[in-house]
Amino acid sequence: MEFHFGYKSSASRISLTFLCSMLCMWTSVECWSYYYSNTTMTWQDARAWCKQHYTDMVAIQNQEEIKHLNEWLPRKDTYYWIGIRKINDVWTWIGTNKSLTPEATNWAKGEPNNGKAGSSSGTNEDCVEMYVKRHQSPGKWNDERCEKKKTALCYTAACKTDSCLHGECVETINSHKCQCFEGFRGDKCEEIVKCDDDKVTIPNNGSVNCTHKYKDFSYDSSCKYSCDEGYQLSMPRPLRCTATGSWSEQPPKCELVRCQELSHPERGSMVCSDPLGPYSYQSTCDFTCDEGYVLTGSPSNTLQCEASGRWNGSQPTCVAVQCPALGDLEKGSVSCGDATDTRFSFGNTCSFTCNPGYHLVGQSNVTCTSAAEWSEQMPQCEEITCQNPEGSRLITQCSKPLSELRPNSTCSFSCEPGFELKGAHTTKCSEHGLWSSAIPTCKARQCPAPELSTSIRMNCSPLTPSVSLSNTHPVGVICTFSCDEGHELQGESSMECSLQGQWSITPPTCTAVRCLALESPENGHVNCSNSEPVYNTQCSFTCDQDFSLEGHELLTCDHHGNWTGEKPTCQAPSAPVAAVASGVAAGGTALLSGISLALWILKRLKQRGSKFELNSNSDIDPPPQVYKNSIDSLI
For 504-527, what is the mean pLDDT? Predict the structure, then answer.
């Protein structure tokens, strides 16, 4: 508890050297001192002088310090520069962006006024002076122009290099205190926080490996979990011992790995074996096809779920078997539907017609069987007067019965609903036994493949082989629509190919799900991966310097249009409580009273000194220290 006022170098000093030195030795408390200059100078020069000869200019911390300085500074009616300036219209302590707190301010009546209310000093009064032993407003503050000359008021720091082992040394009135780093506590920050090692449990089908930065299961210790093959962690993050002495997470579990659920193939079946769980690690699924169909799309008809959570192959599908291609019919023709590779597939039927002047002998239709063979032999065409004008889907109306067609017989043609006529609408049997026009055919009406937007899925039923291998859809097909995850359907959900070969509606579209726009938290910032808050957009949050993030650091827009958590906030740090030592009795007291007071102070400080004896046997090497001047104790 040593205060210096008077002469030191070019400064003045009044010292209680002997008494204060004894007090510091007894209590092991580092002391600090006040100083003032013999000459006056501007505010900027005063601070530079204080920093050159001492630690810095005095920044008033509280009312006790103001009272002490007003009583001990010797010069009456003297004006002293103190370490407070106006920055961006805010009164601020030097060396910090923190504004003055109400408990530390001591403005004189009507101050600060920046030259207003009758002041003759002009404007821009951005610096602060303190009245000492002034008849009016002793110890009060006044805003003044920084260019004016006043007495400099300085201090020296109390913090030493070994004051705090794992923390920052903070100046206080006539002493210092330690602000411990995260995870440390104690008077000199020598004690490390520990976590309960019993809470680090080994999961079934897994293991745990812990690493320790300081001591076993102490602050910043980390325990990383892993699982046996075929199992995965319920929570991938490691456990970390926090500064509160609790683990950052609950111990995870090792959960059985599961593969994507498989579906029965169209025209086939699937049988699965699940020794550990449905569609999980080591599950196997066997695929078979219905009669007339064979597996394709996979090297094996058995799939197994691997430890990676993926099947060892792609899911097979069932396709129809193929019959041998039919040759040309002599004196006739073969019709097997549309001209695609599927016309000779299982279940498909081919029909035969003869040229004009010939008639068909044998079956007019053959079908591809499951044995990959045609159901009948190919027919033959024999010459007739006039051929029976029939065809697939063809509606014939003749002037005579079909068995009595003779020259001059006429026939008109149309098609069944859903089909359109290809060829002449009428024909006439000539004298040569030939029809005047070839027998027409009926081609099934088709709807064109719809133009679809991205992120949309279409499923059509019934799905015939011709649909899956062409760009058209037959009459009667109904197609339904759905959207990818994170998108929503705009329009009707289904449409049908009509008898006219046109879709019943315009195909719908899919638009991305949107979340509510996020704003930056107060005293913080937000940074998003997309300019619009659509599905899968990620937004990260940060805080300004000296503010801490409370809540989730990263939010994601999910497929429901909701953010994955609440918007975080930025919290200001708590103001430390300054330990204030009592001032010594005012100067000029009688010698006997001073001695009695000194003896009483010595006794009290000796009792208090025993409370600050610290254990010097710490086995933790102290990191480089960061020190703050008297201003930091106010933050």
Answer: 91
Q: Which of 299, 566, 338, 289 is nearest to 442 (CA)?
A: 338
Domain annotation covers residue 633? no
pLDDT single digits (tens) 32-63: 678 899 999 999 999 999 999 888 888 876 77
37 & 112 share domain = yes
Is 148 in the same domain as 89?
Answer: yes
Q: What is the mean pLDDT of residues 587-609?
A: 46
Same-domain check for residues 235 and 291: no
Cβ distance 510 to 488 under 8 Å?
yes
Give me the residue label for tokens 């630690």: 55
Helix (H) or strand (E) holding 380: strand 380-383
Kindly give the pairing relationship between strand 167-172 and strand 627-628: parallel
| CA R_g for the chain | 48
Q: What mean pLDDT comes out for the span 477-486? A: 90
Output the furthest CA–CA distance in the chain (Å, rounded): 158
The CATH number covering residue 428 comes to 2.10.70.10
Are both 127 and 215 inside the same structural domain? no
Q: What are the residues whose beta carbons fall under 8 Å from the beta carbon of 116, sequence distance 6 or more?
A: none
In this prediction the pTM is 0.38
Q: Compute the half-sphere exposure of residue 111: CA atoms within 13 Å on the CB side of its CA.
A: 20
- Residue-range definition of the domain harbouring residue 415: 385-442
Say yes or no to pLDDT of 362 above 80: yes
90-129 confidence digits (pLDDT tens): 888 886 667 887 777 889 988 888 866 444 445 789 999 9
CATH of the domain at 143: 3.10.100.10
Fill in the DSSP letter of residue 247. Answer: B
Instruction: For residue 369, tell me if it sits in a domain.
Output: no
Q: Which of 219, 218, 200 is nearest to 209 (CA)?
A: 200
Is the Cβ–Cβ distance between 374 and 323 less than 8 Å?
yes
> 585 with 601: CB under 8 angstroms?
no
What integer best gives the mean pLDDT of the chain? Answer: 80
